[in-house]
Amino acid sequence: MQIKDKIVVVTGSASGIGLALVTRFRQEGATVIASDLNAELGAQKAAELGVRFVAANVAKEDDVVRLIGDVEAQEGPIDLFCSNAGIAIGAGPETLDKHWQLIQDVNVMSHVWAARHLVPRMLERGGGYLLNTASAAGLLTELHSAPYAVTKHAALAFAEWLAVTYGDRGLKVSCLCPEGVWTPMIENAPILQPTAVTTEFLADKVMEALAAEQFLITTHPTTLQGFGQKASNYDVWISKMRHLRGKAMALLGQGQAAFVGKPE
Predict the structure, then answer these.
(1) Which is higher by pLDDT, 79 or 263?
(2) Per-residue pLDDT tens over the stretch 15-74
(3) Helix (H) or strand (E) holding 16
(4) How far is 249 from 239, CA to CA, in rounded Å?
(5) 8 Å CB contact between 34 and 84
(6) Hey, what's the torsion of the CAs at 260, 220, 172, 160, to 10 degrees?
(7) Residue 245 contacts by C-beta under 8 Å, 6 or more apart in sequence?
(8) Residue 257 carries which DSSP code?
């Protein structure tokens, strides 16, 4: 896909990856609509970039429907929808049910709701593109938060299913699986900081992948290396992850760690 003159929606646009995508798409000549739960910051950043902003809480299907309807009524048919909003919260199985539900709604169901209401429209008009942000945690795991690891695996699986099911009918799907990126979330993961990339570097990777209509987008060679090791010998990979988790927890100075709602 060439981005110039396309109508593009980005959720989670107020900071981090979402803000970088909005910035880059705007530079490439797209009509960009930014969206975020944080209406004040989101509107401010959108205004600075010269794009329209629509506040939405993607943890609610009604808000996703409203966002899609608003854009298609004002700008026209959406060419590229970036389900980028995501949070990290919780630690292990003791994480409260309400937090499991929240992260499930934001990290997984927002993708489902976007597809539910966009895929029929895109198929009817002969095509469209979905860019879903998951994480390297969807291919590997997350060392601090079980809810994050589980929901990012699910987000990747859903993107795979969409690509398999609708790829021959004109729907394009890419899944963004970054490793360490300098966003607010990385404050809680010091083990990722030494190799973290900038959001500008990530945006370059996204643009290259969209131009090639490539499904999987990664930011670090270690992601696919680790995925290959995981596939070839799961027990050895788990052993390595146990060791890495010990290092990660030592860096945090605690035996348990809980993510607290940091955006990506």
Answers:
(1) 79
(2) 999 999 999 999 999 999 999 999 999 999 999 999 999 999 999 999 999 999 999 999
(3) helix 16-27
(4) 16
(5) no
(6) -70
(7) 143
(8) -
List the domain boundaries for the chain.
7-263
Domain 7-263: top CATH class = alpha beta
Q: Provide the 10 A C-beta neighbour count for residue 198.
A: 13
pLDDT digits (tens, 9 = 90+) for 93-151: 999 999 999 999 999 999 999 999 999 999 999 999 999 999 999 999 999 999 999 99
Q: Which residues are catalytic?
A: 148
Hey, is 50 helix, strand or coil? Answer: coil
Concatenating the DSSP letter of every residue in 78-124 gives -SEEEE---EEEE-STTS-HHHHHHHHIIIIIHHHHHHHHHHHHHHH
What's the CA dihedral at 104, 34, 260, 177 to 10 degrees? 60
Q: Which residue do the tokens 């899609």 mark?
A: 68
Question: CB within 8 A of 63, min separation 6: which ones?
Answer: 56, 57
For residue range 190-226, what is the model confidence (pLDDT) as tens digits?
Answer: 888 888 999 999 999 999 999 999 999 999 999 999 9
Q: Using CA atoms, how far apart are residues 73 and 67, in angstroms rounded to an integer?
A: 10
Place of tokens 């809680």: 188
Amino acid 212: pLDDT: 98
Q: What residues are paired with 81 via a beta bridge?
A: 9, 130
Tokens 């909003």 label which residue?
85
Please list, in sequence order, all residues whose beta carbon lies within 8 angstroms of the beta carbon of residue 184, skipping any fewer than 6 positions away.
15, 16, 262, 263
To which residue do tokens 């593109």 refer? 129
